[in-house]
Amino acid sequence: MTTHLDAATPGLRPAPLVLPPAFTGLVAAGSPGAAGQACRLAESGEAEAGTLLMEERDDVIALSVVLAPTEPLATARRAFFVGMQALADAVGTFGPPEIPVTFLWPDTLIFNGARLGGGALHWPQGCDEAEIPDWLVFSAMLIASKRAAGDPGLTPDSTSLEEEGFPEGLREPLVESFARHLTKAFEIWNEDGPARSMSRYLARLALPPGARASIETGGDARLVHADGRSELLPLLPALLSPSWRDPATDTVRL
To answer: DSSP of 64-125, one letter per residue?
Structure first.
């Protein structure tokens, strides 16, 4: 895969990552971070599908990857669920096996009952729902350490890789694992269809007791409660305003 960058590209350099053949790894330094840089590169045509960016920070693990959609935006957004699967699988690879990785609809990653991070999806501004986007970017962020937040008891709703006993120096291994799991997740989509892929996301989704859920063609979830009530959980509003992100810090809410 070719990424049309040179040594003069500000804020970017090759990443020390071992990635599947379809990926090119870059380190994003400073503002606008991995997500902003990935969107800028995709919009300008400097990066193609498989360009994977990560940030070098101690407080969070932040990554973004450029995708090449083949469907109209209205249905292509389901790629978000594939990215979330890969993120959860990567976290699960390094975490204690007895603690499951789950989702709080649609974008928050929960570990040991607390918010560890989340994912987001970006697409070209002004793209019509019926148009195939030129690009999509899936981005994700995990709390690596909460040392700067003081006593963990002050922020009980969130947790960190450090608190949960994950290995140290996990940034590069986790990003590499994410790329491998993303490749596998899209293979499942291509071979078995979106229904199978969506079921893998739903298997991790936290639901009320007795409830069951399905994901519709446009990405919304249909929740059927134990008493038979049906509830629609829209995807688009959540993608426009990720529930896990603190707008004041632009990182995961503590």
So the answer is: EEEE---S-HHHHTTHHHHHHHHHHHHHHHHS-TTS-EEEETTTEEEETTEEEEEEEEE--T
Q: What is the 3-state secondary structure (H, E, C) of 138-180?
A: EEEEEECCCHHHCCHHHCCCECCCCCCCCCCCCHHHHHHHHHH
Torsion of CA 113, 179, 25, 91, to 10 degrees: 20
The DSSP symbol for 127 reads -
Mean pLDDT of 77-102: 96
Q: Whose CA is closest to 158, among 208, 111, 90, 119? A: 111
Contacts of residue 98, Cβ cutoff 8 Å, sequence gap at least 6:
none
- What's the whole-number average pLDDT of the chain? 94
Q: What is the mean pLDDT of residues 91-96?
A: 95
Nearest-angstrom CA–CA distance, 254 and 244: 9
* Cα separations in angstroms, 196 against 107, 185, 187: 19, 10, 11
> Which sign does the torsion angle of CA 184, 89, 215, 203 carry?
positive
Q: Beta strand 24-28 with 12-14: parallel, antiparallel or unpaired?
A: antiparallel
Q: What is the pLDDT of residue 2?
A: 44
Share of the chain above pLDDT 70, in %: 96
Contact criterion met (CB below 8 Å) for 51 and 41: yes
Alpha-carbon gap, residue 123 to 224, rounded angstroms:
30
The answer to whether residues 24 and 42 touch, using CB atoms and an 8 Å cutoff, is: no
